[in-house]
Design a protein that fits this description.
Two copies of one chain form a homodimer.
Chain A (H helix, E strand, L loop, with lengths): L3 H10 L7 H14 L1 H17 L1 E2 L6 E2 L5 H4 L4 E8 L2 H10 L4 E5 L17 H8 L6 E4 L5 H15 L4 E4 L15 H9 L7
Parallel strand pairs in A: 3-4, 3-5, 5-6
Antiparallel strand pairs in A: 1-2
Helix pairs in contact in A: 1-2, 2-3
The structure holds zinc ion (ZN) (2 copies).
């Protein structure tokens, strides 16, 4: 019913997460009719990103070089390595300005339902990274979801077996959080993981 | 914080309707990490569609030729011209299999709030199309929204002044619709526009 190149575009837009046939159609017409410059920019930046970006040889995040700028920075504390699931999580950690070590980005998590086991995560690269003779502590900052927890558990066993000091970011009441509005599971954990008060 | 080509991609994805900074970021990582083939296909089909598609010289919809296949088809009744807002609306009409005439696609509607007046709609092309000496009736099938109604009203005045027979698709209770679940405005219109029963 549509010209081939239009159907091809609508079909290709469906590869975007959360975009079904209806939105793909709406997006295609919007781009062609109202934002041809934006469409041109998007097409070019997609093809450019695909050729320009690759995993950093050290931290596994996307970079245009062999090793990313952060991994090369002499200002970072190379003895502390923080493991996160995604580049977005790494950016969230950076925004806290509470961590000055280096990162390793898993680019995923252990998720048997999605066919993502330890093998698919390519953990050899992490183990090799940790064995650089400089890293002294690995901080596991995967999500506190079931999958993130399973990933953290798996990694901690793996790393502890190699004699590496492993820690996990704390879980509890959010800063500014009122007990009344915190779910029971979080509250129970906060109670179990209570800390002694000094002085 | 991110490499330039990654930031450029995230930024470009924001040109898609309904995609904000958070989804743009999620989409970029998804494409780069999980669907590079899809990303390649999307980039290529965007650039290809931009060069391949243009407005049909007769009906104004997207086509790869000077005049689209439907406009050239000898099987269609060229005396009847149906005016719709978008190519999607045209496809909806086609799916009814209740119309065998030709179309004119406005690629928009009169919408003063969006700065879309009659001038922006390029109605000269429609008037020229209607003046081919073959068209006998123009059926206005714009939406029954305020904007679609305003567009139909404007067009009907314009076309009637040129001595062309103009009609509007009917409004009323949807087929299978129960009065209990139809909004009061629709019901009121269905009452006002009631038809005499033959026989
Ligand atoms: Zn790196
Ligand atoms: Zn046409």
């Amino acid at each position: 019913m549509n010209p081939g190149s239009l159907d091809a575009l609508i079909d290709a837009l469906k590869c975007l997460p959360g975009v079904g046939p209806k939105s793909a159609q709406r997006m295609a017409y919007h781009l062609l009719q109202r934002d041809r410059k934006g469409a041109q920019k998007l097409g070019e930046s997609l093809l450019n990103a695909l050729t320009a970006l690759r995993p950093c040889a050290r931290c596994n995040t996307f970079t245009e070089a062999e090793v990313c700028e952060r991994c090369l920075s002499p200002k970072r504390d190379a003895t502390s390595l923080c493991v996160v699931e995604t580049p977005v999580d790494m950016n969230m950690m950076e925004q806290t300005q509470a961590f000055n070590g280096l990162y390793y980005v898993l680019m995923g998590r252990i998720s048997p339902l999605d066919g993502q086991g330890p093998t698919q995560l390519g953990l050899d690269k992490l183990l090799k990274r940790v064995d650089d003779g400089v890293v002294q502590e690995v901080i596991l900052a995967t999500n506190y979801t079931n999958e993130g927890e399973a990933t953290a558990h798996y990694l901690s066993e793996l790393l502890k077996a190699r004699g590496i000091k492993v820690s996990r970011i704390a879980r509890g009441i959010p800063v500014g959080g009122e007990l009344e509005y915190v779910d029971a599971g979080t509250l129970a954990q906060a109670l179990r993981e209570r800390r002694g008060i000094e002085g």
